[in-house]
Amino acid sequence: DTNYTSTKADGISAVISGWFSEISPMWPGEAHSLKVKKILFQGKSDYQNVMVFQSSTYGKVLVLDGVIQLTERDECAYQEMITHLPLCSIPNPKKVLVIGGGDGGVLREVSRYSSVEQIDICEIDKMVVDVSKQFFPEVAVGYDDPRVKLHIGDGVAFLKAVSAGTYDAIIVDSSDPIGPAQELFEKPFFETVAKALRPGGVVCTQAESIWLHMHIIEDIVANCRLIFKGSVNYAWTTVPTYPSGVIGFMLCSTEGPPVDFKHPVNPIDRDDICGKSKRPLKFYNSDIHSAAFCLPSFAKKVIESK
Ligand code: SAM
């Protein structure tokens, strides 16, 4: 069955004639489409519509409120970059917090580090966790690590309750700022992140596309420059199934031991560090780490002026 009934919360994405088209006011005038073999799951949680379908060329696809979150074929690019850009930039990360990321892919990547003792995750939507465990076992494998502690709840509220200076690294693997993730892009949220980090601790947040969202990126950068007194950087990578085919990350550190994100001090692309995730890295390496901070001139100009 490839018929998909779109509802208001899905925006206007729809499956028409066997193709899923991702339509949203966040990328007006364009829509990436994937050919649908079979719709595997459709549900409505307290927070969003959740759908899984089998595509013909990207494996299974997870969609939240009409927006593609991951595909089996290219999730490695996103999960590996959002995790290893921050964790390879500091020596011996021990306590790591993931906000969002209910699919478990970031957990899978964090679990590669033997220095890590505690991995907390706060995901708002239990349905995302359950659906991921059912349909994306190679992503949800992250939950098998005994260091992982899952908290179901709002990441904003969770962070407010965290004692100051708790984490070495915080990874914000959020959906777009329309819906439950909206607050995760706002200044008060970044303030609580900074407070929850130890001196010289690092944060990496999903920070949208330089082709589509420079206005959002400008605001994030401006806020981060006010809040993070260590360093503030923007990096990006390619993920073919994200709108415009690229996704960015905001990487910041708090005042303390300096962090030079562009030159990783804790390399992980050696064969001996595959951790419990059972598969070698597919995308990340030290060269692509440093390259991720090289920006096209139009984006560099705006980001450096903030
Ligand atoms: N890992 C994905 C990928 O590979 O593209 C990225 C998207 S991930 C599924 C985004 C998650 O953030 C969703 O599961 C969503 O439920 C969660 N989320 C949104 N708002 C949140 C909030 N306020 N607190 C905690 N989690 C939130």
Automatic annotation (TrEMBL):
SUPFAM superfamilies: S-adenosyl-L-methionine-dependent methyltransferases (SSF53335). Coiled coil: none annotated. GO terms for biological process: spermidine biosynthetic process. Pathway: Amine and polyamine biosynthesis; spermidine biosynthesis; spermidine from putrescine: step 1/1. One of its GO terms (cellular component) is cytosol. Its EC number is 2.5.1.16. Pfam families: Spermine_synt_N (PF17284), Spermine_synth (PF01564). It catalyses: S-adenosyl 3-(methylsulfanyl)propylamine + putrescine = S-methyl-5'-thioadenosine + spermidine + H(+). Residues 17-254 form the PABS domain. HAMAP family: Spermidine_synth (MF_00198). Keywords: Polyamine biosynthesis, Transferase. The keyword Cell wall biogenesis/degradation does not apply. The active site is at D173 (proton acceptor). Belongs to the spermidine/spermine synthase family. GO terms for molecular function: spermidine synthase activity. This is spermidine synthase. The keyword Transferase applies. It is an enzyme of class 2 (transferase).
